[in-house]
Every structure is written in C-alpha cells, then in structure tokens.
Design brief:
Layout: H1 6-20, E1 27-33, E2 36-48, E3 51-64, E4 67-80, E5 85-93, E6 98-105, E7 110-117, E8 120-127, H2 135-145, E9 152-159, E10 164-180, E11 183-195, E12 201-208, E13 214-221, E14 224-231, H3 233-236, E15 250-252, E16 265-272, E17 287-292, E18 295-301, H4 318-322, H5 335-345, H6 351-365, H7 378-384, H8 389-402, E19 407-419, E20 422-436, E21 439-443, H9 445-450, E22 459-465, H10 473-478, E23 482-490
Helix pairs in contact: 5-8, 6-8, 7-8
Length: 491
C-alpha cells in the first residue's frame, strides 16, 4: 500500500503564489524547502491601456519514494491601475493533464468562471468576494500603509488557483540585514497571517525593499520552511536538488494496532508541538472530537455502509445538495465519469448498495498506482486509470455524485503497519464519506484495493471538502505541528 503525499505537493505549489507575488514585483526567484532548491518562480508586472497585468510562473520538482514529480503553476491577474479586479487566469499542471481556470469580473460583481480540463469545460457564476483584491490591489494598499515599524492593516487576497479569498493581517516590522544567497541587504520585515475559513492559518514572512519589492519570503508548511529568494535568472533556472517528501507525511504511532479492520473504535490523544497552538480537528459522523487548547481527544468509530437510503437524493438539505454538485476536481457531470458510475452501480436497489459497488469498482478500476502523478481530477483519473489515494478519492466521490449520492472528499492521516522499512505509522491519506439515510459513512477505495477492507478506525480526518486545493490547507497546516501521544484501542 502506498500512502500519498500528492495533495501536500499540490498545496505547496499553490502556496508558492502567496510567498512572492503579494506586491507584484518583477524578477526571478529560487524556491527552497528545508534549504534545498526545489524550483523557481518568475514574476512579471506590466502596465498598458490603463490596466495592470501581474503574472507569476512557478515550477517545482519534488521526489516521492525516488520518483520525481514536477508541478507547473501559472497565475495571471488583470486589474485597473486603481486595483479594481477585471479578470484572472490560473493554469495548474500537476501530472498527466493540465487544468485551466479563467474568470471575468462584471461591473456588478458577478464572476463568470470557466474550468477546462481534457476538453471538458465547466461554466459557473460566482459573486466576487466583498472587498477582495488581487496583486495590484494589495500592492496599492501596502503603498498606502507604508513601511513604518508597527503599522498594521488587514486585507482580503483572492487566489485564482484556490478560487477563494483569504483574510490577511499584515504587521510591518523593523529593518533587518538579510542574507540573499550570500548578498546581505537591509530590508523591511513584514509578517502576514492568512486565514481561510475552516482551514486554519498560514503565516508568511516577507523582506521587502523601500519600493515594496519582495526579496525573500518564508512560509512554514507541514513543519518545514518554504523559502523564495530573489536571484539572477541563471541561478533560478539552474538544476534543482533532490528532496524526498514521503517521510514528511508520516507520524509515528505510539503503538502497533493489531487487526485494525475489526477494531470497533480507537481513541487518540493528539498534542500540538507548540503549547500555544490550537488544534483544529473536525467532528464528523465517524469521529468525535474534544479540544482543549493544544490537546485534542479524537474517537474514531469503524462504520460499514448499510443497505438503505434512496438515490438519487431528493431532500433539500443545503450541505447534501452541495455534495452533489460537480466541481473542478470532482467532475460528476463528465460523460466518462457518468458512464463509469452507471457501470459500477448496475441494478443496485438502494444508496448503500450503490455506494459499496462504486467503492469496489474504483478499487479495481485504477490499475496503476503511479507515484509520478502530482494530483489529477476525476475526469483525468477516469481516462488514465492512474494515481493513488487522492485520485481514488476524487473519482469515487464524482461517481457517487453522478448517481445522486452526496459525497465529500476527506483528507487526514491513516494507520499503516509498514512503509518504506518503517513500522507503525500514520501517513497522509484521502478517502470519501457518503450520506446514506440520515448520516455520513466513510468509504476507502484505496484501502479496498490493497485488501485492507476499506474505511476503519485507523482514519483521522483533518479536513472535509470537494477535493479542491483549498481543502488541503487544514491538512498542510496541521501536519508537522502535532504528534499522537497515545491511543486506546476499543475492540
């Protein structure tokens, strides 16, 4: 069995956009993780015809179990010279296929968004988040506030890649002598705390010139430091170091768990590494959580999907209706996904039977557990039949939604007996929860494919959503910040 870190890599790639492009400067940057060069970014700001176009192209290479993974990201924002948003575009290439997201903001604040992948096109209309800005708007705000030590201000930064706005609180600090790859420069320190609803906080530290050009940025991710440092083009484009991320996605279990598939429930005690850190662990129908500051007690119950429930879902619950909609990674409206769902369900008589059939179908359908896939959407997985837990999960969720069963993608950690020579670990993992009858049940086509049986009490959920990149941030911001102090197995 392979526990995946693809969603972690995806989140790192998206976070690069927050590291350097905040003020829309021009130049090349080298990207480092834990002191090793993993990629580069190029930032361009152009002014023409009363509009400002800010573009960031970034490229990173990471290794997973000796398999290199390359991720290309491009973000473009177009704003007026006053910082009013006009349109945006994001291209994400994380493996076999590329996904393009483009949006145009109308004067009334409506945004027509188009998502394109593998010839499949989705159109949707959203409302521009009130008060949100992109690169130029943030640059103008920073210029207005200035760089005096102690200045504080708030903003809301819209990310085209995430299709969401992040609340940001910025504090200007003192000038410091900063090492830029051997060149020491006096720069002003600014610290920005980004907060996404339900996904925790990310802290970004930037060192800027008097003209607000970022020269260095530091952001912690999963207990490690990601840095972007301004440099010459030749160094930015130079060969990257080898950096394997697999071991960064694992937590040591305080004990071995025998016969986990038949275990009734497990109670975990999680402890943040920093006593001031507040753990954010979601309560679900499958896990109960009690948090007291830096300590969380989590009880996870084994649950099997029962017979029963009507599909397609015909209720009016807002959450269930949201869990039926196609999204840019869970494309339940894709023809190939709809056809697969029909094949899987067959003549199932109820929602529970249909969900179990889809879980088993996906377990056998993905034939190549290819670690070179960065992160693929359901339609891409349906075509390639490649991937691992995140690909299993988005395809499972999309197929469930396609037949009218509410489904959500869950990100967290799951217990494994052994991985790459180490024993008794909890590794980053993704699975699905489906709404049957009056509650949610966990299903795990990845573990079903490995012979483990599926969802069990060895799963600790850290985030729930649609499988989109923004759903990963609670996982990324939590991993590396806590340990499992103890667990109690209830047979």
């Amino acid at each position: 069995m392979r526990v995946r870190s693809s969603f972690w890599i995806c989140a790192v790639a998206v976070l690069v956009g927050f590291c350097g492009a905040a003020f829309g400067e021009i130049g090349y940057f080298a990207i480092f993780m834990e002191g090793r060069k993993i990629g580069h970014a190029m930032l361009i700001r152009e002014v023409a015809d009363g509009n400002v176009t800010t573009t960031e192209n970034s490229y990173i290479t990471l290794t997973r179990a000796n398999m290199p993974i390359s991720v290309n990201m491009s973000e473009t924002s177009v704003e007026t010279t006053e910082g009013k948003p006009l349109r945006f575009e994001s291209v994400q290439d994380m493996g076999l296929f590329a996904m393009k997201i483009s949006g145009r903001v109308d004067p009334n604040g409506s945004v027509l968004v188009t998502v394109e992948s593998m010839g499949n096109k989705q159109n949707q209309v959203m409302q521009w988040p009130a008060g949100a800005v992109m690169s130029e708007g943030l640059r103008l705000l920073a210029l207005k506030k200035g760089l005096k030590d102690g200045v504080k201000y708030t903003s809301k930064l819209f990310s085209p890649s995430l299709m969401q706005a992040m609340d940001a609180n910025t504090v200007v600090g003192p000038k410091e002598d900063v090492d830029l790859l051997g060149r020491v420069v006096s720069l002003t320190k600014t610290t920005t705390t980004f907060e996404m609803p339900g996904a925790g906080m990310m802290v970004s530290t930037s060192y800027v010139t008097d003209k607000l050009q970022v020269q260095k940025n530091i952001m912690p991710v999963a207990g490690m430091m990601v840095e972007m440092i301004a440099c010459e083009k030749e160094f930015a484009l130079s060969e990257n170091d080898v950096f394997d991320v697999v071991d960064k996605m694992f937590l040591v279990s305080p004990q071995a768990i025998k016969n986990i598939s038949s275990t009734r429930s497990i109670t975990y005690t999680l402890k943040a590494d920093d006593d001031a850190e507040k753990l954010r662990i979601p309560t679900t129908d499958n896990q109960q959580v009690s948090c007291k500051g830096a300590v969380a007690t989590v009880t996870v119950e084994r649950s099997s999907v029962p017979d029963g429930g009507v599909f397609p879902y015909r209720g009016r619950d807002k959450r269930m209706l949201e869990a039926l909609k196609p999204t840019r990674f869970v494309q339940s409206d894709s023809k190939v996904v709809i056809n697969l769902a029909g094949r899987a369900v067959g003549r199932a008589k109820n929602a529970g039977e249909a969900a179990r059939k889809i879980e088993a179908f996906v377990a056998n359908y993905i034939t190549s557990k290819n670690l070179s896939v960065g992160y693929a959407s359901a339609a891409e997985v349906a075509a390639s039949r490649q991937g691992d837990c995140s690909e299993f999960s988005v395809l499972t969720a999309a197929m469930c939604r396609a037949v009218g069963i509410p489904a959500e993608v869950v990100m967290g950690v799951a217990y494994v007996d052994e991985f790459a020579g180490s024993k008794n670990l909890f590794g980053g993992h993704a699975w699905v929860q489906v709404y049957i009858g009056q509650r949610w049940y966990g299903i795990d086509s990845t573990f079903k494919s490995s012979g483990r049986g599926g969802y069990d009490a060895g799963h600790i959920a850290l985030a729930v959503g649609n499988g989109d990149p923004e759903d990963f941030f609670n996982l990324v911001s939590s991993l590396g910040k806590f340990k499992i102090e103890k667990l109690v197995v209830n047979k």
